[in-house]
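Q: Okay, next protein. This is Glycoside hydrolase family 92 protein from Maribacter polysiphoniae. I've checked the sequence twice, so it should be correct. Can you predict the 3D structure?
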Amino acid sequence: MKKTFISLIAFIIGVQFAQSQNYQIEQIDNPVDWVNPLMGTDSNPGLSNGNTYPVIAMPWGMNFWTPQTGNMGHGWAYTYNANKIKGFKQTHQPSPWMNDYGQFSIMPITGKLRFKQEERESWFSHKAEIATPYYYSVYLADHDITTEITPTERAARFRFTFPENDESYIIVDAFDRGSYVKIIPQERKIIGYTTRNSGGVPDNFKNYFVIIFDTDFEISNTFSEAELTNTLESTSKHAGAAIGFTTKKGQIVNAKVASSFISFEQAEINLEEIGDSDFNQLKEKGKAIWNKELSRIEIEGATANQIGTFYSCLYRSLLFPRKFFEFNKEGGIVHYSPYNGEVRKGYMFTDTGFWDTFRSLFPFLNLMYPELSAQMQEGLSNAYDESGWLPEWASPGLRNIMVGNNSASVVSDAYLKNGNLYKYDIENLYDALIHGANNEGPMTAVGRAGAPSYIKLGYVPFDIGLNETAARTLEYAYDDFAIYQLAKALKKPKKEIELYKKRSLNYKNLYDSEYKLMRGKDSKGDFRTPFSPFDWGGDFTEGNSLHYSWSVFHDVQGLIDLMGGEEEFVSQLDTVFSLPPVFGDKYYGGVIHEIREMQIANMGQYAHGNQPIQHMPYLYNYAGVPWKSQYWVRETMDRMYNPNADGYCGDEDNGQTSAWYVFSAMGFYPVAPATDQYVIGTPLFKKTTIHLENGKKIIINAPKNNRINRYINTMTFNGKSYSKNWLSHKELMKGAEIDFDMIDEPNKNRGINKEDFPYSLSNE
């Protein structure tokens, strides 16, 4: 009887838990309250659940702040399983793999003066930690101090609550590899600069900072390397400062901090962003800013997990590329050039890799933030003027990583979507695209590595001293398509237009009919032998042929034709999900984290944790089986994301993997940027209201939506029956109301006709 009673209780608890997981919340008032900045922080170099850190910042802020659990200069600045904090760091890090630049930290301590990171660190607990986009607080147990941070775009306020102690200090660490500090006691001020970076900077790079306190300094020391001195100024490989006070229990010490890449004077100007706001006022301003941006997309009828995941992903979609410009004393827009070291007028943005973000992050900005997108295009035009090239991975200047020439997509999609709304030098940008498309750059990740061979042969062969050549070819072909689209819009000469249209079909040169997959070739036209579709790397980038063979964003119909028709195409798509997650890792000499993330996901060969294949579930729409897209898109949303520290299934990558979720949850996705279309998946919520920048609204109704009802039965667009598998950007920007009738079994009669399929170049 006792066992039966216990079993009954367990059953009831289980039912209640299941119901709580499926309980839908109808209205969200403060979406920022649902954001978890710790989502994705439970990561390490061998397994990424996001490889994120808690970004305490304003949207696209020039400066971010984060608690620092890792050692100085380590890419994994904050990891969820760490239990000690070494400081609170101003950071510009786009990812742990790219590491950081312009970094320094602030750390309060009590007791004996210790300034080395391993001596000053303190135990902390997530139970005594509050992390929001606009506010961070944590209790430092070893020092009995609570530290709080609230930021602006280029400045921040700190609030330290001290215990009663005769030895209370604040350490300012300007980090190693060349730094400077100066204490100015009569002004309660510390100034300094840091030069620590991970590359991509000119020789004169410095991040200048100024910190102003509201409490007199009783002790003022600087340190140089491992030596503490009584001087007020230090220039060395590793400089820092320590100021001290006698504090009463609960005494608050406030600090205002700002920085500049231009000068100390400009840092003081940036400090004015705080104005007269005290800590709480600035915190509330920050909360209002985040709520305003997050409320641009309202969702109704979602579970708590879905809400937390959606708004955490939306938060990550509003961080990069960061603003790298400042406002001078006249209010003019200026920037330090990370390309030539000069101070120039105009916009500059940085810290993004187009190989990742051309896919959905930049299309998201073009949909939701066209004015900001235009400013980013101005910044790219400036980057071309200052470096002679468009960046493909900027942090803050040119970095030599990843493949492709995807600036072509970023530039073309922005102009094709919104170019008539804003004035910027699109002709200069077009010249930059043509230059990059036909020349090898100063490094393999700039311009097009293998460009002479690509132009001559129609592909990049693997026997010319380059790796990842099949990936390069496929991306170059799509990039040529983006140039073709822009050339048409700008009414370029017919011969030029036709050239890039022809080159955009170069993907066909690597198609192997035996395997029905893409395969590397040598300069004689022979396929690589031996060949395994499971081998990662080699001719491909962070993936294998099963992942990259779908990288024909602009001409899926052409790929279908190569494969022998829709039935064979669908079979190949199905195979990706049904094959076991076997792999070959000989190219890397071991299992890289992207491989491991595919292996453990239990989705076959589908590797959502990395970008090359993220669009693949949507491709069923091009072959008359849209219900399979609906199944796999929902499956990916449900299984690969959650709002917790292990919330991603691979690197988050500057908003790309987050923007995939945001788009997919709304019900559509930009498979082929530089076209007018979004491909329909399956909406996640009962209602989504998208507030466009032009004042129009897109309202998406799916009242029957739930965990089981993932399939579209019927659909209307502005009240009219709609059978197409895509939506037009142009029509959406006019405002729209879309109604979905969702059911639990696929409707195999909707979206099956050729006229319903999304755009393909072969159908022009």
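A: Here is a summary of the prediction. Confidence is low (pLDDT under 50) at residues 1-19. The two ends are 73 Å apart (CA to CA).
Q: Noted. On to the next one.
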